[in-house]
Each structure stands twice: as C-alpha cells, then as structure tokens.
Amino acid sequence: MEIRQLKQKANNLPLKPGVYIMKDKGGKVIYIGKAKALKNRVTQYFGLGNQHTEKVRRMVLNVDDFEYIVCDSEFEALILENSLIKQHQPKYNILLKDDKGSFYIKITDEKWKRIKKAVTLDKTGEFIGPYNSGFIVSQTVDEVQKIFKLPSCNRSFDKPTKPCLDYHIGLCDAPCKANISANDYNKTVQAAVEYIKNGEIAENSISALTKQMEAAAEELNFELAARIRDRINAINKIRQKQKVVEISYKEQDVFASVIFDGTACVAVLKFRNFKLWDKQHFFIEDVTDKTDFYAEFLQQYYVGKTDIPSRILVDSEFEGSDLIENWLSKTMDKNISIILPKQGEQKRIIEMCQNNAVQNLSEKTEKTTREMSVLNELKELLNLEKVPKIIEAYDISNMSGDNNVAGMVVFKDAKPYKAGYKRFKIKGFLGQDDYRSMAEVLDRRFNEYQNGENESFNTLPDLILLDGAKGQIGAVLPVLEKYGLNIAIFGMVKDSKHRTRAIATTGGDIVIKSNRRVFTFITNIQDEVHRFAISFQKQLQSKKMLGRELTKIKGIGDKKANALLKHFGSMIKIKNADIQSLVSVKGITEQNAVDIVEYFNKL
Q1: In sequence order, what DSSP letters do the residues of 144-202 get, joined into one string?
Q2: Confidence band for 124, pLDDT divided at 50, 70 and 90
Q3: What is the CA 206 to chain-centroid distance, rounded?
Q4: Closest CA to 468 of 529, 401, 423, 410
Q5: Gyration radius of the chain over CA positions
Q6: Is it the case that residue 199 has pLDDT exceeding 60?
Q7: Whether residue 515 sits in one domain with residue 557
Q8: CA 386 → CA 259, 378, 524, distances in Å?
Q9: Which tens digit of pLDDT belongs to each residue from 389-439?
Q10: Pair 390, 411: CB distance under 8 Å
Q11: Is the pLDDT of residue 99 over 60?
Q12: Which of 52, 104, 112, 323 lies at a CB distance of 3.0 to 4.6 Å from 118, suitable for a disulfide?
C-alpha cells in the first residue's frame, strides 16, 4: 500500500484510545504503539516525514498496512500494547533482553584453588548460589579477593615468577613468589568461602577476626596476626565504600541515560535494603532525545516483573509518566511514584547513574568518558535537541578597523578538528563593525553550503558559538532564516579581564562557572577561535608591512607587492631572487626585476 493510501486509511480512524499494529509486505508485525486518539497519532506517521527520526522514517518506509484495536481508555491501550509487544517482538519497538538468569560463585577444583564468577554449573569445582544478580556475584568475588589477598590472575603458582602490580600495592599475597605452600594458600581460600557463605559483613565478623588476631599474637605467630589484621582493615575499607552508595529509602530503582551519535545507553541502579543491590545497562539505537523513548523503555523493562519498588527515579521528564505510574501501581497493588530529583542525596544518586551510563557508552563507542560527559552536559545546559557532535565557533579580529578578518574553528566530538578551520577576509564594507562582519561571514559560510561546490563546507554543525553576546546572535539569526536552517546558536561572553564568563542567548546569559567541565570546554573553544582569528589578522598585518617595504621600490605598487609576497612567501626569498625568477611573477616586468635586485643590493 502506498503512503497516500495509508494516510487516507489513517484519516478514517476514530478519535478514540487504542493500539495500532504496523505490518510489512509479508504481513509481519514490525511496530506496535498505543494512542490516546488513534487518528491523530497514526496520521502523523504518514504526513510528517521531514520531522521523523531516522528510525521512524525507516519503519514507515517498510509499512505496507496497519491494523488497530479500539480500547475504552489509554490505560487499557497500554496494557494491550505490552501484551502484543511481548507476543510479536516487533523489529522497531524497544526490545530488552530478558536479564533473568542464574549466576554462581565457583571454587575451582585444582591444586591452587580459585574463586570465580560463573554462569553455568559443571563438575569441575564447588559452587555457591544461584544468585539472580550478576553484579552481586562480581562484587562478592572482587570483595573476597581484596579482603583475603587472593590472586585475580590466571598465573601458574608451581614455579616462582616475578609478582605483578597487585602484590606491590597490597592487593595480593603473591603465591607466584613461591612464598606460601599450596596447603596454606587453600586454607585462605577456604576462609574466604566461609566468609561468602556467612553473608554480609557484620560487626561480629570483625569481632571474631580481632580475637583470632590477638590469639595469634599471643602465640608469637606474628605473620598470621598481620594477615588477619590486613583482613580487618580491608573489611573496614569495603564497609566505608558501601556506605557511599547507601540511601535513605529502603527500595528504589534509578534510571539515567546518555545519548551520543544516535545511540542511547540507559543505566539502571537497583537499591534494596538501603544499599546498591544490582546495576544494569541497555543500549538503544536510533535515538535523539531521551524523552522520546523513556515511556516505552520503562514499559518493556517492568513488564512481567514482580519486584518493583515504590520509588522510581529518572533523570528527565517524559510524556506518559503518569500513565506508567498508574499501570505499575495497579500491577503491584501499591502506590508507585516516578520522581525527577532536583537536589540532595537523590540528585547525587541520579548523577552516579548518569556516570555509569556515560562509562558504558564510552566503552561501546570508543569515545572517552570526558568527551561524552561534557557534550551531554552541554546539551542539557543549553536544552539542545541532540548532543552537539560538531560545533563551529566564530570570532572577528581587526586592527583599529583595518585588516578586518574572521576565524572559524570546528570541534568534532569535543576535540579540535583543524581540517575544518576556515579564515575569512571581510569584504562587504570598510571599517570596524563586528555585527555586520559576523553576519557576512555566516552568510558566506552557508552560501558555500547551499552551492555544494566546496566539500569542506558541506557538513552543517549541530551548534554555532559566536564570540560575543546577544548582539552578535541577533545579527546572525536573519542569516540562518535566509537559508532555512534550524541550528542552535549561542554567544560566548567574556568578563572585564577577557575571560570566559557565560553563554549568551537572545534572552540573557547562562552562567557556566558552576559546571566545571562545560566551563573549561567553552573556555577552550573561545580561546582557540580567538587565537586562530587574531593569528590571521597578525599575518595580514605583517604582509601589509612587508608590502609597504616593497612599494618603496620604483614601479612597485600594492598590487605587484602582494603578487611578489604571494609567489615567494617571504621577504628573504624575494631578496635572494634573481631577475629571471622575479620576471616569472605575473605583472612583474624585466625593468621591475632589475629595480628590485638593485634596491636590495644597496641595503
């Protein structure tokens, strides 16, 4: 069915709540959605192509037909949508893998026993578990290795070898040095196993170890006493670390996400019994705004789950949150709230969750955590539609109204992209006028984009930063309107000491000093574009001074002086040039060449 026919069919839908089911040419379900008013929602797919995300555009291109089911309420539509998505697993819906599974702690059956994380049972050792959380298993294994100074490597301990860094920083007793027998080593492993089986760290654990340490000291077994002392110290350190992620509420789930280059990472922190109990992360492709996918993501995350806390923290408001709250509350038969914290402990927990999302996405995309953090923070601060991967910055430079020039620098993925740097001479007028200069430069830049002849201008930025306040922005906005461009544009404001102070908008300034990463990033951009523009201005000034020296020669005016400098590149090369080389310059006669050689020979 053609788009025109699909749109016509959608126009005949009722203005009632319901579920719509998109199908491809083979009749396969490729997307399922719900709507408060079916007609309004479905017609959008077939009439707003230019405003759709890439993912929606691809889905619409594959739609050959659709069905719909009218419901009594939007809530009923939500329940039906969840059921149908689970049944059909449509390609273009957010589909989260079922993370239910069993995890084990394995004690290997070998001469030098190891404690490891395992996901399957076999007959090669002892297993503790199962656990529902892989995070808890990993955390527990890491914890006992640190407390009992057990190796985390795969080395053989039958022959002495040079110990690794863990030994030198006190994290491992280094059985690889052959300073302990396999029997004594395995006794330590067994003590670690007993520690795991006894559960959480408790005061009586510390008390029991203290008594063992004192008894060993009385028996003059100072080596054993020292090892027990180190275990006590390690336990206390881990207890302090755990307190960092303790919260005031017994149970809550925390969701935060970051988006980079169309890929979103959603991090989930699950708190139970006042402590961090589990963490997960999910990747979602073809995303531009977190508010567009949170409702669907939470639906898929919680469908079929029975362990849903009363508090759910999110890092962004999103449409449909009240509907999700209602659905979860009725599912669990208790009041469940979706909360966007603004300050205090809960805001800190959200920030920790965001940092986890940044870290996971940086590993996937091979971008550094710093780059991704600053670009996401800039997006949030400026309320941009997407992460500004490509930023263009502009600055004007002149010398008392003379040599009026501009510099354009490009930052790509938060790093200077020097292949994109451009220099402009102001041609439209004489004298000093930063507003007109900025407007001329942007006009020429986007005229090049529109012509498409110069490949270096063919990529549009996600964000434009101008060195200046709202006056510069006001001068440039008509240029963007002229070319029909919707690009976010802001100014970079300096204080009286020429240091970055704020980001300017058409309505006022956004102070950025409180956000260290964004402040440093904007300062670097402003310093770089200023350096680039002023270096061009100085270069032209230097050439002008050299040109004046050449115009002292009989028959050499500004035009011929500029031609000589452009051809030879420096005054030294002009001085050393012979008559034949000078004559090869366009416009230079043989008499000019003789006069030039004679002039410099007299100096």
Answers
A1: HHHHTT---S----SS-----HHHHTTS---GGGS-S-HHHHHHHHHHHHHHHHT-S--
A2: confident
A3: 42
A4: 529
A5: 34
A6: no
A7: no
A8: 8, 10, 21
A9: 899 999 988 765 566 889 999 999 889 999 999 999 888 776 678 899 999
A10: yes
A11: no
A12: 104
* CB within 8 Å of 574: residues ≥ 6 apart: 550, 564, 565, 568, 582, 596, 600
Does one domain contain both 155 and 280? no
pLDDT (tens digit, 9 = 90+) per residue, 231-256? 777 766 665 555 555 678 889 999 99
CATH number of domain containing 84: 3.40.1440.10
Q: Which of 541, 570, 593 delimits the end of a domain?
A: 541
In what side-by-side order are the strands of the sheet with 275-284? 275-284, 263-272, 252-260, 311-314, 337-339
Report pLDDT for 201.
46
What are the φ and ψ backbone dihedral angles of 488, each rounded to 5 degrees? -65, 135
- Phi and psi dihedrals of 65, rounded to 5? -165, 170
- Identify whether 130 is preceded by a cis peptide bond (ω within 30 of 0): yes
Mean pLDDT of 432-450: 90
Question: For the chain, what percentages of helix, strand and coil (3-state, to nearest 5) are there?
Answer: 50, 20, 35
Tokens of 348: 């800190």
62 class by beta-carbon count within 10 Å (0-12 exposed, 13-18 middle, 19+ buried): middle
**172: in domain:** yes
Residue from 537, 403, 595 nearest 574 by CA: 595
pTM exceeds 0.90 for this model: no
Of 493, 513, 541, which residue constitutes the final position of a domain? 541
**How many angstroms separate the CA atoms of 371 and 409, rounded?**
18
Structural domains of the chain, count:
5
Domain annotation covers residue 98: no
Contact 311, 252 (CB under 8 A): yes
Question: Hey, CA dihedral for 200, 206, 212, 213, is it positive or negative?
Answer: positive
Question: How would you classify residue 326: left for phi > 0, otherwise alpha for psi between -120 and 50, otherwise beta?
Answer: alpha
- State which amino acid sits at residue 490: F
What is the residue-wise DSSP string for 349-393? Answer: HHHHHHHHHHHHHHHHHT--HHHHHHHHHHHHHHT-SS--SEEEE
pLDDT at residue 228 tops 80 = no
| Helices within 12-107 (DSSP H only) | 38-45, 54-62, 74-88
Q: Are 444 and 436 in contact (CB under 8 A)?
A: no
Residues 240 and 256 in one domain: no
Residue 440 has pLDDT above 80, yes or no: yes
Nearest residue to 247 (alpha-carbon basis) of 113, 369, 344: 344
